[in-house]
Every structure is written in C-alpha cells, then in structure tokens.
Amino acid sequence: MTKAEVALLLAAASGRDQRTIGDADVLAWHEDIGDLPYDLARAALGRHYRESTDRIMPAHVRRLIRTIREERRGRELPSEPRALPGRFEDDVTRDLRVKEGVALCRSVLSVVMERLEANRRLPSGELDADGWCGRCNRDTRLAADEDDRNTRCLNCHPERAA
C-alpha cells in the first residue's frame, strides 16, 4: 500500500471517528500496514466500524485482514483431481507410467530380498553349498556377539577355532 492509499484509508476512518490526520499519522500507519493491500485494508476498516465503536488502530487492520483471508480461503473450492483416461480410453503415457512403477517396485524389493536372503537361517549345524551357516554375514562371515562386536563366525568363518 502506498502512502497515498494510507492517507485515503485514514480519511475514511476520520469520517467515522472524527480523527485529525497529519503527515506523521500517514507515515506511522504506512510503517505499520504499508505491506498490506489497500483493498483488504479498506474492507477491514469497514468491517471494524460495522462491528465496533472503538477507534481503529493498525493492529485491528492486520487482525481483520487475517480473518478476511481465512474466510476467503474457506470459500475456495478445492481443485479438481487430475483426470486420467479410463481403462478403455487412449492413454499414450500409461505404458510408460506402468513400466516406471514396476521398475521402482523392483528396485525397492530387490533390497528387501537381499536382506531376507542374508538373514535366511539354515538348520543348526548345516552349511549351504558355499559353506555358509546362515547365521552371520554371508560375505564377511562375521557375526555380532552379545556386545554387538563383529567376531568370526564360529560355524563357518574360514579361520574359525577348530
């Protein structure tokens, strides 16, 4: 809002509460509400004097503008969801979206499957074809002890104690 618009706002207020307006008033109000749009400030001024007999101050204008904005947001209709073509309509990007979705699922599931494979347990005392017991890390053959320190797997590490 410009200083001229602040002066117009104060003139409208003086018509209601008989205040006198000087350059200092315009400058002070501009510092306090100069960042607000004039049309909303004017609406706030009108609402204030319809609801109150108190002399309006910049804080009243800010509070009422916040209220007006919230009310306007509440009246706005929600945006329509993006309409995708139906199952039997032409959709040139459907195959690409499906392919990307499948690739994403595979990449996520591959990590899960690797972890499941690494944690797969063999029956006690048995080793798989690579000599892995299933209770330790397959690559390092290290297992966590009760203090969460990695130690050689007692079942399958190549340098395990005999």
Question: What is this structure, in a nutshell?
Answer:
The chain has 162 residues and is mainly α.
Properties at a glance:
162 residues; mainly alpha
Topology:
Elements: H1 3-17, H2 23-33, H3 38-51, H4 58-75, H5 94-119, E1 142-144, E2 150-152
Antiparallel strand pairs: 1-2
Helix pairs in contact: 1-2, 1-3, 3-4
Strand order of the largest sheet: 1-2
Largest sheet entry = 2 strands, antiparallel
Q: Summarize model confidence as the mean pLDDT.
A: 84
Strand/helix succession: HHHHHEE
How many E-type strands?
2
Residue windows where pLDDT falls under 50 for at least 5 positions: none
Give the radius of gyration.
Answer: 37 Å
Estimate the helix proportion, in percent: 40-55%
Which structural class fits the helix and strand makeup? mainly alpha
* Tally of separate domains: 2
For the termini, the CA-CA separation is: 87 Å
Number of helices: 5
The fraction of residues in strands falls at: under 5%
- General form: elongated
Please provide a written account of the structure.
The chain folds into 2 domains: 3-74; 113-162, no CATH class. It has 5 helices and 2 strands. It has helices at 3-17, 23-33, 38-51, 58-75, 94-119; strands spanning 142-144, 150-152. The protein has a two-stranded antiparallel ribbon. Strand 1 and strand 2 (150-152) form a beta hairpin. Helix 3 crosses helix 4. The protein is elongated, with a radius of gyration of 37 Å. The N and C termini lie far apart (87 Å).
